[in-house]
Each structure stands twice: as structure tokens, then as C-alpha cells.
Write a structure and sequence with these properties.
574 residues; Rossmann fold; 3 domains; eight-stranded antiparallel beta sheet
Amino acid sequence: MEKFALLLSLLFCGQILAAPTGNEVEFSLSFTKSQSAKALDGRLLLLLSNNDEKEPRFQIVDGAETQLAFGIDVENLQPGKKATFDGKVAGYPLRSLADVPPGEYWVQGLLHIYETFQRADGHVVRLPMDRGEGQQWNKAPGNLYSLSQKITITTGIKNKFNIVLDQKIPPIEPPQDTRYIKHIKMKSQLLSEFWGRPMEIGACILLPQGFDEHPEARYPLIINHGHFPYTFGGFRTDPPDPDLEPDYSVRFDVHGYNRIQQEYAFQFYQEWSGPDFPRFVIIEIQHANPYYDDSYAVNSQNLGPYGDAITYELIPYIEKKFHCLGKPWSRFLYGGSTGGWEALAAQVFYPDEYNGCFAACPDPIDFRAYTVVNIYEHKNAYFVDSAFKKTARPGFRNYLGEVKATLQEMNQRELVLGSKSRSGRQWDIWEAVYSPVGKDGYPQRIWDKVTGEIDHKVAEFWRENYDIGYILQRDWKTLGPKLKGKLRIYCGDMDNYYLNNAVYLMEDFLKNTKNPFYAGEVDYGDRAEHCWNGDHSRPNALSRLRYHQMYVDKILKRMQESAPQGADLTSWRY
């Protein structure tokens, strides 16, 4: 009875996710000399699945369908040397191998390789360099892994398994240029100095119809912020593939969504090349870094001066190479989710360099609503502050409010995938961008990743440097005149990640601004989930495929109203 009471106590406190099975399970992982003759650093992952629908490395997610992962850091691991996974190794969603029920599983090992960086701030850190995949641990070229194999965990015996990582993820072929789409990379002097090695940033460029035929034209530049793009997305010069096998979108409950995506990409090409579409240059920036698939387009103690590198190195380079007007009045920003935050942040932090932003479903823009956490007032991120209750804070919901994952579960997954903010996932990159550097050279935690206890000293640093809502209120006297008419924010009121909460706080401030009034727009989609971009005429599944067309009319109107006397408003309107 006492053991049962203790079990219930632990369960309600969120300390365990399943009753321990008592199984003795041990895995030994190693890699072959044929894959690497030298010792390696990195995050070594053990992955288990009870189905063979996909390889286990592609089944570790936040939702209920997730399979099992366990992770440890390795340093100077020699080829052939075995690393041991036992009941003490942290796991997700089960906390320990001892919790894994008996039965048949597909198992796979993977080593996410780290490199050593000697940064300009004097810190030496080990991090995964992006290799063209956009910081995806399960797809990163050069990572070592094993083929999945079937095993059986049996009760009453010591289950010991040996896994050999004898496979290597191959390099990614670079995208090919076309008539409309170009790809560029440049060495950033600013970032190279910070990281202590050559660092590149790049972009995928969509050129306007008639670009080669009109060398005299000079074009406005539209920056589409967002996650790492392999090539320019949502643009297709060929009609949909008639032989394409229809897939099913779980997110939108739509059959054949892959064909719909091709249809809308082809429609965009038809509009883009048609006689009435304005001739813009649109770019999608490639700024994957050792922490994430993009930098959040601001300067950071942990990531380096990406904001300056993009604004003062990359954009002028593109404008010169692709015949752009090259003036602040002719530059606009838009994006959704991460890109929504980046578009708004770039406009606020560089108010004189851009003429308007369209921020859709932005990541938290006021840290009093860091999703559902007030990092300044709450004590714990994972549980509602209470003397006697342990009510878990939600992390992901659908439009009906049904919770699919808690904040604790989402952070637990990240902690298994990488220590020291190195998971390459969402909560860790926010931490890497916003936090000061710790004594060990890695980002200081905004909260304890295991317990959820918030560090309010770190929160104060976040507020002063990256809380956009706070910064606007603090500096409106100087920022307001520079931002008048430039801020436009859109969000579904049932955003999956509760991002609308911060937008409400921002709206409360903006609608009451004076000297000057902000003269922008804040709009909400009724029952709309994540990625709503201001389109009231289409469902979310379709409107998210029209980001490139969404803001054209508003951009044109803004340029006509704000361009200086004598500005070129005609050479690009052929």
C-alpha cells in the first residue's frame, strides 16, 4: 500500500510517465573505423519504436504517436569503443530503459556529430555544424547511424544488445539554379570573426518575370523570413504531376495535400509571370547555424551578430547583384511563425532599414506570454504555481483546445536530443538566441530543463534585449516615429502554441499608442490554428500556401504613400 501511494505521488507530481517495469535492459553502441578512423564528439542517441512504419529516427515527435529516445553526450569516442545505455540514461517520453515494457521493438542508434568552435569571446564549445540540411539531427550529412533491427525485451532476464553504427548519412546535392530561382552564398566577415572560422550566409532568390529583358529596371526587395529553405519554396513552373500518389495530411485532415501544394505552387508561378503582378525580387534567407536552422535574424551573445550580417552584409550584396533599388523605403519583410517573429524583430531592431513588416503567427513577441508562461512572474514553467496542486501547463493544442503535449514533455524531448541547448529544437533555440552566455560558453537556461524552475535573472536579460512588446513600450518615444505604418501582425485565436496570447498584449499597447499612433494592423483568425496569415477567405490549409501573394497590395500601397520625392516607382512596373 505504501509503494502504491508513493507511485501515485510521483505520477501526480509529473516525475514519471509510466510505472517502472523492473526490466534490466542495456545497450552498447559503437561506430566502425570504416565510418570514422578518428575519435568523435557528439550526442549519441538510442531510438526504439514498436512499429516499422518509418525508421525510429523519424518517429521522435511531440505528439502522442512519438516513439522512444534516449541520449548521452560523448567526447573523444574512439572507433570500436562501446558506449553504454542503461536504466540511468535519460529518456523521452519514458524516463528510463527500465520503464520500457517487454515486447518487440525496432531499434536504431545515431551519433549527431559535434565540432569544436573557438569563439572570439574566448569560449570553446562543441556544437553541430549545419551541413546543408537545416540542423536536422536525423538527416544531417556525416552523422553515423545503424540500420533499424528488430529486438525482443523479455521480463526476468538481463536484456543486453549491441548496436553498431556502420552507416553514414550522405551529402546533400546543392539545388540547381533555374530561370527564376537563383541560389547565392557569401562569407560573412562578422560571423566568421565571431565563430573563429569561415561562416557563410546565403539566400534563395526569386527573380521577377522579365528580369533578363529589363536590365534598366531596379526592383523592390521583399525578404521572406522563416526556417531553412533548401530552395525557394511554393513556386513551380510545371503543372501538378498527374502521377503523384496522393498523401494524407494529419495536421489538416486532408487527403491529397501534396497535390494541393503543387497546384498552389503552379498558381503562384502563373500569377508571378502574368502581366499584372508587380515585379519584385523575393528572397528566402539561409542562416542555419550551430544551434538551429535559422538565427532569428538578430544579434545574440551565443549565435553572434546575425542581425547585422543579414542587414549590412547579405542584403546589400543581393541588392547590388540582382538590380534592386537598395533603399530602405523599398525593402519589406514578411514571414510566419519563426519568420513572423524575425520579420517583426528586424523591423523593430533596424527601424530605419525597412519600410514594413507582415508578421504572421509570430513566436512569442511579449514574454509575459511566452506561450502560456509569464517568465517574469511565474515560478515554474511546467506547472501552475500552487501550494498543493501540480497542474501541468499545456504546450500544444488543436483548434478545439484539445492538448496534445505539455511544456514539460516538449522540453523533455529536447533534453534527450541535446544537452546545453543543443537539441536544435524550438525551446532551445529561443534560449540560445535570447540568453546571456554562461560560464561554460553555452546559453544560460531560462528555466531548469528538468524541474521547470524559472531563473528570473536570465528573464530580466531577455526582457531588456529581446522582449519586443517591452522594448516597444520602453522606447516608443524614439521608435514610434520610425515605425508608424510599418507594423502588421496576424494570428489565429486558436494558435496551436498559444502564440495569440502575446499578440493580445502587443495589440493592447499598439492600439493605445500616441505621438504617433502606430497606424498599422493587428488581426485574428476565428478558430484558426498556427500559420494563419490574415486571409479570412480561405481555410488555414490553403491560406498558408499563399504567403507570397498575401501582402502584395499592401506593400504597393505603402510604397506609394512613403516613397521619397523622385523615387523610382516605375522602372519595375513593366
